[in-house]
Amino acid sequence: MTSGTITPYRSQLPAGRDGFAQLLRAEWTKFRSVRSWIVGLAVAGLVTVLLGLLSVAGSHTSCGGSPGGPAPASACTPPLGPGGEAVSDGFFFVHQPLDGDGSITVRVTSLTGRESELEPWAKAGLIIKESTTQGSAYAAVMITGDHGVRMQYDYTHDTAGGTGAVSEGSPRWLRLTRSGGTLTGYESADGTHWTEVGTARLTGLASTVQAGLFVASPDHEEYDQSLGASKTTGGPTQATAEFDHVALKGDWPSGTWSGEDSRGGDSGRQTSVEAFQETGGTFTVSGSGNIAPALAAGGNTVEMSLVGAFAGLIAVIVVATMFVTAEYRRGLIRTTFAASPRRGRVLAAKAIVIGGVTFVAGLAASALAFSLVGRIRRDHGDVVLPVSSLTELRVVVGTAALLAVAAVIALAVGTVLRRSAGAVAAVIVLVVLPYILAVASVLPVGPGQWLLRITPAAAFAVQQSLPEYQQVGNAYTPANGYFPLAPWTGFAVLCVWTTFALALAVFLLNRRDA
Amino acid sequence: MTTSPSPLFSVPDVEASIEVNDVHKRFGPTVALDGLSFTVSPGQVTGFVGPNGAGKSTTMRVILGLDAVDEGSALVSGRPYRSLRHPLHHVGSLLDAAALEPSRTGRNHLLWLAHSQGMTARRVDEMIEQTGLQTAARRKAGGYSLGMRQRLGLAAALLGDPPVLMLDEPFNGLDPEGIVWMRGLLRSLAAEGRAVLVSSHLMSELQDTATHLVVIGRGRLVAATSVVDLIAAASGDRITLRTTARSDAMTVLAHAGATVAATGRDTVTVSGLGSERVVSLLGESAVPFHEVSAHHATLEEAYMELTRDEVEFRASAGGGMR
Amino acid sequence: MRQALHAESTKLRTVRGTGWLLLAAVALTIALSVAAAAAASCPSGGCSQDPTKISLTGVQLGQAVIAILAVLVVSGEYSTGMIHTTLAAIPRRPTVLAAKALTVSGVVLGAGIVAVLGSLLAGRLLLPALSLGDGPTLRAAVGSVLYLILIALLSLGVATAVRDPATAIGVVLALLYLFPILAEMVTDPSWKRHLAQIGPMDAGLAIQKTTNLPGMPISPWAGLGVLTAWATAALLAGALLLHQRDA
Fold first, then answer.
1. Residue pLDDT, tens place only, A251-260
2. Is residue A42 within 8 angstroms of chain C, CB to CB?
3. B243, B281, B277: which is closest to B262 by C-alpha?
């Protein structure tokens, strides 16, 4: 039935490149040519910044909440440790200068709290500190209320030694030696058999340092479970320790001990009870406060500026879902698959385009929110707990990455469900609701933390700027800004969900008729 | 059969044909295609006709790899569609002119299609000109009339300069001028050696355009034939007689063994007798008549004849298929 | 109006998915409630949490499904062009919206009762401290059903105003979910309180609280009143836009 005289048509059109880049370009053209999607993304960026600014609202009065009226701006700023992090540096220090290398040995015979309430992280022991200035470098070996012997240095580092509390019947010997920049802590039960607890290398430590005995006892805090573990009661505490058999080696030029609260006289604390007495080689020292990193609850954190990302997230989810469901709604998906029959590659191209575009917009928005809020807080004299630039970078970039991956999971769910309303709701519920349930609801801490381990909301951990310190007693709960997973681990949870959603989408795309 | 083209600047070596072999396709309990086979050859416009729900659109989706077959195969240029690397260089298709993102301009619609095949914006502008969309191209497609959407769909189909074209109801929504334009375009595309498959439910649209027909009903092939043969078969040996004495003529001819039917106030259709025999019989009986001619069926009539069974189906099943 | 009502209820009944969505709303509400109650591990007698509120946690999830349902009642018609048919049949547009609102309310009332009763019964089994008969718990139960209806009406209004289903559901869930997060993040206590007072979800769910009422930012019925204001505003905005715009 073919008319044999006809020559089949031969196109003169040059064939284009065959490659994924072409597909990417096509999907990018699709995205940029729908104005409402561009607007949607711009809205996402805008609300991220605006709601970030809202988080600063009315907060310029908060200044550490120090009693007795407003304090000068300098008092608002917490001392910074050698690593640049905010620290609390308050303890009772019985010290004298030490020149060059040397060591100090002591026996601790008791550590008690006032009215026999001893804080688990009350500390008593030996410390070698750069100076009496708050935030200066140090290394210390100590006995604690509930956590045995510890070697700690520079506020954030902590090494566990032997366990068990100290008492008249079972005293503990401690020794701290300095050799150049290396400080080593030892413990012993009898003063003859010594075990090394830990070593600290403090670079740039001055030749003359302050060394001696210290006692600290952190504020007592109690949490009311029903309100999502927010702090309700608390206050300063005090611990008292007894030391004897003080032995010094090396060059200790002054030869006399002086005792003082490390916060100085203007700390507003009752210094009368914080005293030390020496009678016949026995030192009785009382102190309060803590020498440790500051906690999120103690001020504004960097991630507070990025609260708007939640609103941005919702806008991003709407746009990313529509990027595919609009094609289903119009029947355009058939045109797409007729032009590019390898459907998995089409979805991959879409994912890269929407993820990339969202990342760029999200990065711009979160960087802007971060810097604007930071500037406003500085102008207001607000305390922002400082973190390293690397952490700041992780928080800002991580937020953008979170938005981008959320866009991809929205795309995948949209492909699976093919309906926009259901897909948008599903993704928002999946990513945002667990966070609300864990952070701002009646849910107890345990289940809340599990929600933030296994749901995509775990990814918000990437915004947590302050690490959890196990050597500081605190409620490390979502409501206080602490996630159960490490930042990138939490982010990986979202990525795993996204990978599964994408795999399901590809499977269904290839199985279903378009 | 052909190796995939080297990445740059090679003319795709493609064969202009569609082959559908024993395709079965069901949607749940509904059988959409039931062993359908046909081929579409280059250099002609092939009309693809059948009642609503016969499976025309399903067939086209199967050819484009959009719907998977349960059994059988559909090949384009000898290859399954899904294996094509630049499909728009092989087959241009227009399934649904309304399948557009309303807030995207017509030009941008063509642009992403072009980009997906590695083509440039220049080709897009060529096609816009060829389909007469210059004024509308930079407006949002949501505001297009149905006719403009058809033109845009055609531009998309022609974008890759394909040797095979497959258009689903391209005449829908076109004004008379547009229909003439579309017919001319389809004929010229076929004259260049392309295989053109055009579905329609209105045979009159295809009358002057298609040279071949594939007629399907209930997912099966009813006829695959050239238009000339089909009309000849439908016309058969019937004779149209114009007479003022209709009943007399019918009586005489029926007596002579012919099958006679009154088809008008003064026309009678006769079959079973040659025209010379009719003339002599009427002359013998002195029945007056003014014209005896061989009956020439219209394409519509020929089609109705073929699909008589299918109409019953349509009345009972109500076209529930996609 | 009666005809409009009849037409809307027929549409809702015959649209596929309505049944599934209602079933999903009930199932998800009860499922999350049960999970929360099981996790609460509240010893009989001394329960630091509010057992009623815990047992009704699922409403926070179920409301998302109710929102989808309500959004689709309107947006579904826009995306298929059916709205033209609807408005041609009943040209008085506010009547159409009112009929839709009534129909959706009726359906959500039914589903809400099942979901809330199911949650509370499950809560009773898991939390002995929960007593179903007392006044505050009854108020929480009735209020939770009303809450779901108001969420549906809010969604209906938003969907009528913005038309596109994806955007509508995004706006509704943003209204619901963003206030609690903001309230959590804002450091200033008075802002915290105000956000909890005006947020539709925070304020509306105050109706579920049965313990520690004086400490709440807003009293139960006043909270539901705030949500009612939100829903009314959304419906009015929807009606106004429906009236002014071409269909």
1. 888 888 888 8
2. no
3. B243
Burial tier of B267 (Cβ tally within 10 Å: 0-12, 13-18, 19+): middle
Angstrom distance (rounded) from CA A490 to CA A501? 17
pLDDT value for C59: 93
Residue found under tokens 């709290």: A113
Sign of the torsion formed by the C-alpha atoms of B132, B135, B140 and B142: negative
Mutate to test the interface with A, among B116, B123, B152, B322 (most CBs of A within 10 A): B116
Mean pLDDT of A64-85: 58
Chain A within 8 Å of C15 (Cβ-Cβ)? no
C241 interfaces chain A, CB cutoff of 8 Å: no
What DSSP line would sit under A117-140, residue for residue?
---TT-EEEEEEES-SSTT--EEE
Question: Angle, nearest 10°, between helix axes A420-431 and A309-330?
Answer: 150
Query: Cα separation of A34 and A32, whole Å?
Result: 6
Which two structure tokens, joined as six digits, stand for A147?
A: 């956590």
At B165, which amino acid appears?
L
Residue A96 reports pLDDT greater than 70: yes
Q: Report the 10 Å Cβ neighbour count for A337.
A: 23
Residues in chain A with CB shorter than 8 Å from the CB of C165 are 419-421, 424
CA distance C82 to C71: 15
A317: which chain C residues are within 8 Å (Cβ-Cβ)? 170
Per-residue pLDDT at B4 exceeds 70: no
Q: Which residue of C has its CA nearest to A310?
A: C178
Q: Which of A215, A184, B34, A316 is nearest to C170 (CA)?
A: A316
A408 in Cβ contact with A502 (< 8 Å):
yes
Q: What is the pLDDT of residues B161-175, one digit of tens each?
A: 999 999 998 888 888
What mean pLDDT comes out for the span A306-333? 94
Residue A29 CB-half CA count within 13 A: 24
Neighbours of A252 (CB within 10 A): 16
Give the side-chain half-sphere CA count within 13 A for C9.
11
Report which listed range, A464-473, C114-123, C204-213, is most confident. Answer: C114-123
Q: Tell me if B160 and A11 make a contact (CB, 8 A cut-off).
A: yes
Residues A14, B226: C-beta atoms closer than 8 Å: no
Which residue type sits at B245?
A
Give the tens place of pLDDT for each residue, A20-29.
899 999 999 9
What percentage of chain B has pLDDT greater than the value 70?
A: 90
Closest CA to A384 of A294, A309, A468, A462: A294
C189/C192 Cα distance (integer angstroms): 5
DSSP secondary structure string for all residues of C160-228: HHH--HHHHHHHHHHHHHHHHHHHHH---HHHHHHHHHH-HHHHHGGGG--SSGGGSSS-HHHHHHHHH
**What are the tokens at A451?**
């929600």
* CA neighbours closer than 13 Å in the CB half-sphere of residue A258: 9
Report the amino acid identity of residue A146. D
Chain A CB contacts of C39 below 8 Å: 443-444, 446-447
d(CA C182, CA C203): 14
- pTM score: 0.86
Across residues B217-227, what is the average pLDDT? 88
Look at the block and give the residue holding tokens 């419906």.
C235
B226 to A240, B38, B59, B131, B210: CA distances (angstroms): 109, 13, 20, 29, 9
A340 contacts B66? CB cut-off 8 A: no
Residue A166 — pLDDT band, cuts 50, 70, 90?
confident
Query: Angle at the Cα of C10 (from C6 to C14), degrees rounded to 5?
Result: 175
Question: Is residue A312 a contact partner of residue A403, using CB atoms and an 8 Å limit?
Answer: yes
Whether residue B1 has pLDDT greater than 60 = no
Q: Which of C226, C209, C218, C231 is nearest to C161 (CA)?
A: C231
